[in-house]
Write a structure and sequence with these properties.
The complex is a heterodimer of chains A (about 50) and B (about 160). Chain A has about 50 residues and is mainly α. Chain A has two helices and one strand, in the order αβα. The chains are: A mainly alpha (about 50), B mainly alpha (about 160).
Chain lengths: ~50, ~160
Protein backbone atom coordinates (compact mmCIF):
# COMPACT_ATOMS: atom_id res chain seq x y z
CA UNK A 1 0.00 0.00 0.00
CA UNK A 2 2.94 2.31 0.74
CA UNK A 3 4.34 1.62 -2.73
CA UNK A 4 1.05 2.66 -4.30
CA UNK A 5 1.26 5.95 -2.39
CA UNK A 6 4.64 6.91 -3.84
CA UNK A 7 4.33 5.43 -7.34
CA UNK A 8 2.86 7.94 -9.81
CA UNK A 9 2.77 5.75 -12.91
CA UNK A 10 -0.37 6.24 -14.96
CA UNK A 11 -0.22 3.11 -17.06
CA UNK A 12 -2.39 0.06 -16.54
CA UNK A 13 -2.60 -3.30 -18.27
CA UNK A 14 -5.01 -3.39 -21.19
CA UNK A 15 -5.94 -7.05 -20.66
CA UNK A 16 -7.18 -6.43 -17.12
CA UNK A 17 -8.87 -3.21 -18.24
CA UNK A 18 -10.93 -5.29 -20.68
CA UNK A 19 -11.81 -7.94 -18.08
CA UNK A 20 -12.81 -5.35 -15.46
CA UNK A 21 -14.79 -3.49 -18.11
CA UNK A 22 -16.85 -6.58 -18.92
CA UNK A 23 -17.50 -7.21 -15.21
CA UNK A 24 -18.52 -3.56 -14.70
CA UNK A 25 -20.85 -3.66 -17.72
CA UNK A 26 -22.48 -6.83 -16.35
CA UNK A 27 -22.94 -5.11 -12.96
CA UNK A 28 -24.57 -2.08 -14.60
CA UNK A 29 -26.87 -4.33 -16.65
CA UNK A 30 -27.80 -6.45 -13.62
CA UNK A 31 -28.58 -3.41 -11.47
CA UNK A 32 -30.65 -1.86 -14.25
CA UNK A 33 -32.61 -5.11 -14.75
CA UNK A 34 -33.14 -5.85 -11.05
CA UNK A 35 -33.96 -2.20 -10.36
CA UNK A 36 -36.74 -2.30 -12.94
CA UNK A 37 -38.12 -5.54 -11.48
CA UNK A 38 -38.11 -4.16 -7.92
CA UNK A 39 -39.76 -0.93 -9.08
CA UNK A 40 -42.52 -2.95 -10.76
CA UNK A 41 -43.07 -5.01 -7.59
CA UNK A 42 -43.28 -1.86 -5.45
CA UNK A 43 -45.82 -0.50 -7.93
CA UNK A 44 -47.91 -3.68 -7.64
CA UNK A 45 -47.81 -3.48 -3.83
CA UNK A 46 -48.77 0.17 -3.94
CA UNK A 47 -51.76 -0.60 -6.17
CA UNK A 48 -52.86 -3.49 -3.92
CA UNK A 49 -53.06 -1.20 -0.86
CA UNK A 50 -55.32 1.75 -1.75
CA UNK B 1 -22.69 21.59 -11.87
CA UNK B 2 -21.51 21.35 -8.26
CA UNK B 3 -18.05 22.19 -6.90
CA UNK B 4 -17.34 18.47 -6.51
CA UNK B 5 -18.17 17.62 -10.14
CA UNK B 6 -16.21 20.64 -11.37
CA UNK B 7 -13.10 19.55 -9.44
CA UNK B 8 -13.69 15.97 -10.64
CA UNK B 9 -13.69 17.01 -14.30
CA UNK B 10 -10.76 19.44 -14.02
CA UNK B 11 -8.58 16.99 -12.07
CA UNK B 12 -9.27 14.01 -14.33
CA UNK B 13 -8.76 16.00 -17.54
CA UNK B 14 -5.47 17.36 -16.20
CA UNK B 15 -4.43 13.83 -15.26
CA UNK B 16 -5.34 12.56 -18.73
CA UNK B 17 -3.10 15.19 -20.31
CA UNK B 18 -0.09 14.37 -18.11
CA UNK B 19 -0.73 10.64 -18.59
CA UNK B 20 -0.71 10.99 -22.37
CA UNK B 21 2.47 13.08 -22.28
CA UNK B 22 4.54 11.21 -19.71
CA UNK B 23 2.58 8.10 -18.67
CA UNK B 24 2.52 9.58 -15.18
CA UNK B 25 -0.12 11.19 -12.97
CA UNK B 26 1.77 13.51 -10.59
CA UNK B 27 1.35 12.86 -6.88
CA UNK B 28 0.81 16.61 -6.41
CA UNK B 29 -2.28 16.44 -8.64
CA UNK B 30 -3.82 13.45 -6.86
CA UNK B 31 -2.98 14.96 -3.45
CA UNK B 32 -4.72 18.24 -4.32
CA UNK B 33 -7.73 16.31 -5.64
CA UNK B 34 -7.90 14.28 -2.41
CA UNK B 35 -7.71 17.41 -0.22
CA UNK B 36 -10.41 19.10 -2.32
CA UNK B 37 -12.52 15.92 -2.04
CA UNK B 38 -12.55 16.44 1.72
CA UNK B 39 -13.10 20.20 1.40
CA UNK B 40 -16.06 20.17 -1.02
CA UNK B 41 -18.17 18.00 1.29
CA UNK B 42 -17.53 20.09 4.43
CA UNK B 43 -20.79 22.01 4.12
CA UNK B 44 -22.93 18.87 3.74
CA UNK B 45 -22.71 17.71 7.34
CA UNK B 46 -20.79 15.01 9.18
CA UNK B 47 -22.51 12.03 7.51
CA UNK B 48 -21.76 12.88 3.86
CA UNK B 49 -18.26 14.05 4.82
CA UNK B 50 -17.41 10.77 6.54
CA UNK B 51 -19.02 8.80 3.69
CA UNK B 52 -16.85 10.62 1.12
CA UNK B 53 -13.67 9.98 3.14
CA UNK B 54 -14.67 6.33 3.59
CA UNK B 55 -15.31 5.98 -0.17
CA UNK B 56 -11.85 7.40 -0.83
CA UNK B 57 -10.15 5.06 1.66
CA UNK B 58 -12.00 1.95 0.45
CA UNK B 59 -11.19 2.78 -3.19
CA UNK B 60 -7.51 3.25 -2.32
CA UNK B 61 -7.30 -0.02 -0.36
CA UNK B 62 -9.02 -2.02 -3.11
CA UNK B 63 -6.92 -0.25 -5.75
CA UNK B 64 -3.76 -1.13 -3.83
CA UNK B 65 -4.52 -4.81 -4.33
CA UNK B 66 -4.88 -4.19 -8.09
CA UNK B 67 -1.61 -2.20 -7.97
CA UNK B 68 0.16 -5.04 -6.16
CA UNK B 69 -1.05 -7.46 -8.81
CA UNK B 70 0.36 -5.16 -11.49
CA UNK B 71 -3.03 -4.33 -13.00
CA UNK B 72 -2.96 -0.57 -12.33
CA UNK B 73 -0.31 2.13 -11.92
CA UNK B 74 -0.04 3.87 -8.55
CA UNK B 75 -1.10 7.19 -10.07
CA UNK B 76 -4.27 5.59 -11.45
CA UNK B 77 -5.15 4.08 -8.07
CA UNK B 78 -4.75 7.37 -6.20
CA UNK B 79 -6.66 9.36 -8.82
CA UNK B 80 -9.58 6.90 -8.74
CA UNK B 81 -9.60 7.09 -4.93
CA UNK B 82 -9.69 10.91 -5.05
CA UNK B 83 -12.51 10.73 -7.63
CA UNK B 84 -14.49 8.48 -5.27
CA UNK B 85 -14.00 11.04 -2.51
CA UNK B 86 -15.23 13.81 -4.78
CA UNK B 87 -18.30 11.81 -5.85
CA UNK B 88 -19.05 10.73 -2.28
CA UNK B 89 -21.05 7.68 -1.32
CA UNK B 90 -23.03 5.98 -2.91
CA UNK B 91 -22.25 7.93 -6.12
CA UNK B 92 -18.69 6.55 -6.07
CA UNK B 93 -20.00 3.11 -7.09
CA UNK B 94 -21.50 4.11 -10.48
CA UNK B 95 -18.52 6.42 -11.03
CA UNK B 96 -16.07 3.51 -10.68
CA UNK B 97 -18.24 1.32 -12.93
CA UNK B 98 -18.23 4.08 -15.58
CA UNK B 99 -14.43 4.39 -15.31
CA UNK B 100 -13.96 0.61 -15.63
CA UNK B 101 -16.21 0.44 -18.71
CA UNK B 102 -14.34 3.38 -20.25
CA UNK B 103 -11.06 1.58 -19.52
CA UNK B 104 -12.13 -1.46 -21.50
CA UNK B 105 -13.29 0.66 -24.42
CA UNK B 106 -10.01 2.60 -24.33
CA UNK B 107 -7.98 -0.62 -24.31
CA UNK B 108 -9.88 -2.01 -27.31
CA UNK B 109 -9.72 1.26 -29.26
CA UNK B 110 -6.00 1.73 -28.54
CA UNK B 111 -5.25 -1.86 -29.53
CA UNK B 112 -7.29 -1.51 -32.74
CA UNK B 113 -5.49 1.72 -33.61
CA UNK B 114 -2.12 -0.03 -33.18
CA UNK B 115 -3.23 -3.11 -35.13
CA UNK B 116 -3.00 -5.25 -31.99
CA UNK B 117 -6.69 -5.93 -31.34
CA UNK B 118 -6.43 -9.67 -31.97
CA UNK B 119 -3.35 -9.92 -29.73
CA UNK B 120 -5.17 -8.08 -26.93
CA UNK B 121 -8.24 -10.32 -27.22
CA UNK B 122 -6.05 -13.45 -27.22
CA UNK B 123 -4.07 -12.25 -24.22
CA UNK B 124 -7.26 -11.34 -22.35
CA UNK B 125 -8.74 -14.75 -23.15
CA UNK B 126 -5.54 -16.37 -21.86
CA UNK B 127 -5.97 -14.57 -18.53
CA UNK B 128 -9.60 -15.65 -18.33
CA UNK B 129 -8.78 -19.29 -19.06
CA UNK B 130 -5.26 -19.83 -17.68
CA UNK B 131 -4.79 -16.88 -15.33
CA UNK B 132 -1.76 -15.54 -17.18
CA UNK B 133 -1.43 -13.07 -20.05
CA UNK B 134 0.40 -14.03 -23.23
CA UNK B 135 1.69 -10.44 -23.45
CA UNK B 136 1.32 -7.15 -21.60
CA UNK B 137 -0.41 -4.22 -23.26
CA UNK B 138 -0.11 -0.97 -21.31
CA UNK B 139 -2.34 2.05 -21.73
CA UNK B 140 -2.59 5.53 -20.16
CA UNK B 141 -5.52 4.82 -17.86
CA UNK B 142 -5.87 8.50 -16.96
CA UNK B 143 -7.81 8.88 -20.21
CA UNK B 144 -10.29 6.22 -19.06
CA UNK B 145 -10.65 7.90 -15.66
CA UNK B 146 -11.40 11.22 -17.38
CA UNK B 147 -13.81 9.64 -19.89
CA UNK B 148 -15.64 7.73 -17.16
CA UNK B 149 -15.89 10.87 -15.04
CA UNK B 150 -17.28 12.89 -17.96
CA UNK B 151 -19.87 10.18 -18.65
CA UNK B 152 -20.76 10.11 -14.95
CA UNK B 153 -21.24 13.89 -14.72
CA UNK B 154 -23.00 14.47 -18.04
CA UNK B 155 -25.29 11.42 -18.00
CA UNK B 156 -27.68 11.48 -15.03
CA UNK B 157 -28.99 8.03 -15.97
CA UNK B 158 -25.55 6.56 -15.16
CA UNK B 159 -25.54 7.93 -11.59
Amino acid sequence: MRAALTDDRGQSLGEYAVILSVIAALCIGAVAFIGTQILAQYHDINVAYP
Amino acid sequence: MTAATTVLLVATLAAAVTDIRSRRIPNALTAVAAVLAVAVHLGEGVGPELAAVAAMIVAFVLGSFAYSAGWFGGGDVKLIAACCGLAGFPAAIPLVLDILVAGGVLALVAAAANGRLVALVRSTAAIATHGAATEKTTLPYGIAIAAGSIAFVLTPALR
